[in-house]
């Protein structure tokens, strides 16, 4: 995922490292009286509540003054204030604030996600979970004096509300924070002000929560008439930025800088982006030459890879730009290139291309699983500090050779798919986990060995009938940027304090994480990252000047010493420029998660091309699917427009449509709550990402992402698409309708969060399935490298019986069962999953597992051990291992348990359901109960055989009753089934 396992710097260091420039941080340079005036209603609160996104017919305020009692449910009715707002003034007595919730009087509540709202005194607004302080209905601009209509842009700051604090020339300032502005259109807020006889005013803006834009303490001078304020630029007599646009008749500019380069019989064509008065929506690439004549291709980016061309043939390319209205630019200057000889077929794999629901998944942190080659072990800069060195336990320890060596162990458990952590070259102080990508086009050498490259691992897995799912990151790079796209230069002085950190430059050395640099003696060399000379075009303010702060060691800190989104070190085109303020707000999709995770501007075509090109490489190697990290932090519309189609197209191009259909993409949409909809936000809920878009948005991806966010939030949770793809129709399987499937499946975060108890996970999982495009593809796990159930920071420690019950449910209920490495022996149960470099990895849930795998093991079939010796034989003899092996044998033998739809209709029992899968000559129908007894009514008559005990039941009246098998045990009665599968174990018997 994202935050766990990343080196954290002290907050004080983060603040000074950011090189704060004063943007949006000051207090307005206004009248001392205005800024010093205290509220005169210290014992009352006037609460304004925003109703537009709720669409409630009535709104009630249910509250309790601090230290006092709550009102009687539903509370007091609020009165209409102005468009989209209601209000209520309440007497607090001597209390300094109140706890509050809101409801519609009919049982629908807004309780701030279960936390209630903590409100103070005076005038307060609550809008979509955001608390601010202003009167949104004040100053309607209807007076007879001079008027100023002010539009303020929050596109850069990402504020969710805006106030204007102002003083007419010669007049007094409003009371802080001023008056609330009204939302005008996406990214713009508006207010019309009566300023009497004055012809201008002074103004500053704020978000109602203490964050200001006061024009770098100079305030803004705004005249009468219509004025826009955007990124500190004041435009008088401005056009209404929200006005309807005139028809677009202007064509884009002609693309420039067209280049074409050939590698064997492939050509890469690139060009500079064209400009347009609205937006360029696509390019038309025309190719001439060869025997196929003229070929015109529509391209969504500024890079195109043309493959499968003829040998030693000249080709000419021109490019036109097209806007949304269909206006087309003239053709660019031509670029001509001649291909070379046909290259030999690359050594690559082919994805297995089968239904991913057939394949239970084993998840490993490659660097912590098994050490097949100690020569590529690396401890990094935090080796001693973390305590790993004292344990002789370098963070990079496991590798692909170790995985290849132990594929038979994973197969012996019964797993046929292996999810591995990211493979790209990483760069950070603590990057063994793989989520700090630096060179996305290079496999990290700390994972490879002679004869055990990444390609070798893929091929070895496929030879055993096992899939490789690669963890991929589109949302962010390392804090040092992404090689080949942009890497920042920081200020660094090799003085007596910092020489230990900044390595002497070695112009001939290229960092790869593995090779030791000769001057420093380090593999984690950083001499290429810093400079004492200010780089040309630098926008990081006060380059190299002391901040006045000190590091944890007491060293002098300097501006521009560490990359951050607000420092100016990263170009806005390639990286977002903000920190997340609201984890359920739009900014969570367009700002940095953490200082070690530089947030890509994924709406930019160059960034998209960089990432698509990188991951095409791994598709070509034959991987079987992608697990997508931090998927929720990229707008769904960007996934649906760019990245998901690119994956499908590349797999189709290389391996065909069947392989593309079964290339398994599953996203981590981090909804860490127990709600069906994450705090009421559809955009931040896992199931939302399984759907295509329902309307057209602006051609510009950045604009489209805001439009899509607002559109879906306003529709709300009750207007989202639903699906029956996971559900039986009575007892019948029906062909699923996947026409609206986005291409992204999901990790079942709701079951994960509730797996403290299997029954709870089951109930919660069922509740969300109608809003997932097809929940039979959900990836289901108990815990992972990030969290345990209920967002616990420790590995699951519910006990062996509870683990057995969880597994019995996961292996028979809808979805794809997934196990985090070592859980088969309750490895590190109850241990903190991650603590970064503040404790040894050996004490965490990411400990090295290889000691339990020493020895030899062979497996010719899934869930069966042919031979084993040494420590791995002991591991394979553990009770949960035996349980897993048999569960995998049963699931593999019953198609209904792999791909079947399910129903609980006509069934009594706590965890009981029926499943069916029908395809061609296959018709598999199973009745399942986990732990408890069950009665099934209205089922087809016939002979049912239990896959666990072999018991045979003949149903003639449509009813079958099953006694409770006991915790962790289950019954799987299959119509015309094979009978008992496997041998009795510690739980299945």
From TrEMBL:
<dbReference type="InterPro" id="IPR003961">
    <property type="entry name" value="FN3_dom"/>
</dbReference>
<dbReference type="Pfam" id="PF00128">
    <property type="entry name" value="Alpha-amylase"/>
</dbReference>
<dbReference type="GO" id="GO:2001070">
    <property type="term" value="F:starch binding"/>
</dbReference>
<keyword id="KW-0378">Hydrolase</keyword>
<dbReference type="InterPro" id="IPR017853">
    <property type="entry name" value="GH"/>
</dbReference>
<feature type="region of interest" description="Disordered">
    <location>
        <begin position="240"/>
        <end position="259"/>
    </location>
</feature>
<keyword id="KW-0119">Carbohydrate metabolism</keyword>
<feature type="region of interest" description="Disordered">
    <location>
        <begin position="332"/>
        <end position="356"/>
    </location>
</feature>
<dbReference type="Pfam" id="PF00041">
    <property type="entry name" value="fn3"/>
</dbReference>
<feature type="domain" description="Fibronectin type-III">
    <location>
        <begin position="251"/>
        <end position="342"/>
    </location>
</feature>
<dbReference type="GO" id="GO:0046872">
    <property type="term" value="F:metal ion binding"/>
</dbReference>
<dbReference type="InterPro" id="IPR036116">
    <property type="entry name" value="FN3_sf"/>
</dbReference>
<keyword id="KW-0326">Glycosidase</keyword>
<dbReference type="InterPro" id="IPR006047">
    <property type="entry name" value="GH13_cat_dom"/>
</dbReference>
<dbReference type="InterPro" id="IPR013783">
    <property type="entry name" value="Ig-like_fold"/>
</dbReference>
<dbReference type="Pfam" id="PF03423">
    <property type="entry name" value="CBM_25"/>
</dbReference>
<feature type="signal peptide">
    <location>
        <begin position="1"/>
        <end position="30"/>
    </location>
</feature>
<keyword id="KW-0479">Metal-binding</keyword>
<dbReference type="GO" id="GO:0016798">
    <property type="term" value="F:hydrolase activity, acting on glycosyl bonds"/>
</dbReference>
<keyword id="KW-0732">Signal</keyword>
<feature type="compositionally biased region" description="Low complexity">
    <location>
        <begin position="241"/>
        <end position="259"/>
    </location>
</feature>
<dbReference type="InterPro" id="IPR005085">
    <property type="entry name" value="CBM25"/>
</dbReference>
<dbReference type="GO" id="GO:0000272">
    <property type="term" value="P:polysaccharide catabolic process"/>
</dbReference>
<protein>
    <submittedName>
        <fullName>Alpha-amylase</fullName>
    </submittedName>
</protein>
<keyword id="KW-0624">Polysaccharide degradation</keyword>
């Amino acid at each position: 995922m994202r935050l766990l396992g990343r080196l954290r710097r002290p907050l004080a260091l983060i603040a000074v490292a950011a090189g704060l420039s004063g943007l949006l941080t000051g207090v307005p340079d206004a009248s001392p009286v205005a800024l010093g005036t205290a509220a005169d209603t210290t014992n009352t609160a006037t609460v304004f509540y925003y109703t537009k996104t709720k669409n409630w017919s009535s709104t009630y305020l249910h509250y309790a003054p601090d230290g006092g009692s709550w009102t009687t449910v539903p509370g007091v009715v609020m009165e209409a204030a102005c468009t989209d707002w209601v209000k209520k003034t309440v007497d607090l007595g001597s209390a300094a604030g109140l706890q509050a919730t809101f409801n519609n009087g009919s049982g629908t509540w807004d309780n701030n996600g279960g936390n209630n709202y903590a409100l103070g005194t005076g005038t307060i607004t609550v809008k979509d979970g955001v608390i601010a302080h202003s009167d949104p209905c004040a100053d309607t601009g209807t007076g007879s004096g001079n008027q100023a209509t002010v539009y303020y842009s929050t596109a850069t700051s990402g504020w969710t509300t805006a106030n204007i604090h102002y003083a007419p020339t010669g007049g007094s300032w409003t009371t802080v924070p001023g008056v609330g502005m009204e939302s005008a259109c996406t990214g713009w807020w508006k207010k019309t002000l009566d300023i009497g006889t004055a012809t201008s005013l002074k103004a500053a803006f704020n978000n109602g929560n203490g964050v200001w834009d006061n024009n770098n303490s100079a305030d803004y001078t705004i005249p009468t008439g219509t004025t826009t304020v955007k990124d500190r630029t004041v435009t008088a007599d401005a056009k209404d930025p929200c006005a309807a646009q005139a028809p677009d008749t202007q064509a884009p500019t002609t693309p420039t800088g067209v280049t074409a380069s050939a590698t064997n019989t492939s050509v890469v064509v690139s060009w500079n982006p064209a400009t347009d008065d609205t937006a360029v929506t696509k390019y038309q690439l025309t190719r001439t030459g060869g025997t196929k004549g003229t070929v015109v291709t529509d391209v969504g980016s500024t890079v195109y890879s043309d493959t499968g061309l003829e040998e030693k043939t000249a080709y000419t390319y021109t490019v036109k730009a097209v806007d949304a209205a269909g206006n087309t630019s003239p053709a660019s200057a031509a670029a001509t290139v001649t291909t070379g000889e046909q290259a030999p077929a690359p050594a690559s794999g082919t994805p297995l291309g089968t239904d991913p629901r057939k394949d239970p998944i084993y998840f490993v942190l490659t660097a912590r699983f098994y050490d097949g080659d100690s020569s590529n072990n690396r401890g990094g800069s935090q080796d001693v500090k973390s305590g790993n060195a004292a344990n002789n336990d370098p963070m990079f320890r496991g590798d692909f050779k170790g995985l290849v060596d132990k594929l038979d162990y994973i197969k012996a458990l019964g797993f046929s798919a292996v999810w591995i952590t990211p493979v790209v070259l990483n760069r950070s102080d603590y990057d063994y986990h793989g989520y700090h990508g630096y060179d996305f086009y290079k496999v990290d050498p700390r994972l490879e060995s002679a004869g055990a490259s990444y390609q070798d691992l893929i091929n070895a897995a496929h030879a055993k009938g096992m899939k490789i799912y690669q963890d991929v990151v589109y949302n962010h790079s390392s804090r040092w940027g992404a090689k080949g796209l942009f890497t920042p230069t920081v200020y660094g002085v090799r003085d007596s304090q910092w020489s230990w950190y900044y390595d002497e430059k070695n112009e001939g050395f290229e960092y790869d994480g593995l090779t030791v640099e000769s001057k420093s003696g380090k593999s984690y060399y950083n001499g290429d990252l810093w400079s004492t000379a200010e780089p040309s075009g630098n926008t990081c303010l006060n380059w190299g000047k002391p901040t006045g702060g000190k590091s944890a060691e007491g060293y002098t800190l300097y501006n521009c010493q560490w990359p951050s989104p607000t420092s100016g070190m990263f170009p806005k085109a390639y990286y977002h420029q903000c920190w997340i303020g609201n984890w359920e707000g739009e900014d969570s999709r367009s700002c940095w998660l953490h200082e070690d995770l530089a947030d890509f501007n994924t709406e930019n075509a160059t960034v998209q091309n960089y990432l698509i090109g990188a991951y095409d490489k791994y598709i070509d190697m034959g991987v079987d699917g992608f697990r997508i990290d931090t998927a929720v932090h990229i707008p769904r519309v960007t996934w649906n427009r760019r990245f998901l189609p690119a994956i499908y197209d590349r797999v189709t191009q290389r391996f065909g449509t069947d392989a593309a259909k079964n290339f398994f993409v599953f996203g981590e949409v981090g909804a860490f709550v127990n709600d069906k909809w994450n705090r009421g936000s559809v955009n931040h809920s896992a199931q939302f990402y399984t759907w295509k878009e329902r309307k057209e948005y602006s051609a510009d991806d950045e604009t489209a992402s805001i439009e899509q966010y607002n559109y879906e939030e306003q529709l709300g949770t009750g207007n989202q698409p639903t699906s029956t793809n996971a559900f039986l129709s009575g007892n019948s399987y029906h062909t699923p309708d996947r026409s609206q499937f986005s291409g992204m499946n999901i990790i079942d975060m709701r079951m994960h969060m509730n797996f403290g108890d299997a029954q709870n996970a089951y109930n919660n999982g069922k509740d969300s399935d109608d809003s997932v495009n097809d929940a039979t593809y959900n990836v289901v796990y108990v815990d992972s490298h990030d969290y345990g159930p209920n967002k616990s920071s420790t590995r699951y420690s519910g006990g062996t019986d509870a683990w057995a019950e969880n597994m019995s449910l996961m292996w028979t209920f809808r979805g794809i069962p997934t196990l985090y490495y070592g859980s088969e022996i309750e490895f590190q149960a109850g241990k903190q999953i991650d603590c970064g470099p503040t404790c040894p990895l050996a004490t965490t849930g990411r400990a090295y597992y290889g000691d339990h795998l020493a020895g030899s093991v062979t497996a010719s079939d899934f869930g069966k051990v042919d031979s084993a010796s040494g420590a791995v034989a002991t591991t394979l003899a553990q009770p949960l291992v035996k349980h897993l092996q048999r569960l995998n044998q049963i699931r593999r033998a019953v198609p209904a348990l792999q791909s079947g739809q399910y129903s609980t209709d006509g069934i009594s029992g706590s965890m009981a359901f029926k499943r069916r899968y029908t395809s061609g000559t296959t018709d598999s129908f199973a009745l399942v109960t986990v732990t408890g007894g069950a009665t099934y009514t209205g089922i087809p008559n016939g002979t049912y055989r239990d896959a666990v005990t072999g018991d045979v039941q003949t149903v003639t009246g449509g009813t079958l009753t099953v006694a409770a098998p006991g915790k962790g045990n289950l019954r799987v009665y299959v119509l015309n089934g094979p009978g008992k599968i496997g041998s009795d174990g510690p739980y299945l018997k």
